[in-house]
Recover the amino acids of this structure.
């Protein structure tokens, strides 16, 4: 069963098997981060595929959090200095991570509770980033490495 809520101001990209929701205030770099993941992903990651930019529909399907683009914006990505660009996109993705841009300064060793977010009753991994470059590094690290045992 799927329950779709209203659209939110965010972007979403599929990177390999990971679905990434990108949140932040206007001007924080959501579209820039999505463009970097799609057009210039870190070497250790597969190229991303755009799901949605600027507005994202979230739904819960069989206990999984799913992102979809609004029909009118499907395949459109805002690139600062160029405007709207059309590119191939995925119709949806299961979200596994959320990146919050312009988050307060990062903890050196964050508490596990700060590395999770519950959205519409579904808990996914959360990355708090102060900039697009930090977000790219954090996502590359979390998707390409394993956590150290405590």
């Amino acid at each position: 069963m799927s329950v779709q809520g209203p659209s939110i101001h965010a972007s979403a990209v599929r990177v390999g098997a990971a679905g990434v929701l990108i949140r932040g205030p206007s001007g924080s770099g959501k579209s820039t981060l999505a463009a970097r993941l799609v057009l210039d992903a870190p070497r250790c990651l597969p190229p991303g595929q755009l799901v949605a930019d600027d507005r994202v529909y979230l739904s819960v399907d069989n206990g999984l959090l799913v992102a979809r683009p609004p029909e009118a914006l499907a395949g459109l990505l805002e690139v600062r200095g160029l405007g709207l660009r059309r590119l191939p996109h995925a119709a949806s993705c299961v979200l596994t991570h959320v990146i919050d841009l312009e988050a307060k300064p990062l903890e050196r060793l964050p508490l596990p509770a700060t590395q999770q977010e519950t959205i519409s009753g579904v808990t996914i991994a959360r990355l708090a980033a102060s900039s697009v470059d930090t977000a790219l590094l954090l996502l590359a690290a979390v998707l390409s490495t394993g956590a150290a045992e405590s």
Notes: The mean pLDDT is 90. The longest strand covers residues 2-9. The CA atoms of residues 77 and 83 lie 8 Å apart. The first helix runs from residue 30 to 39.
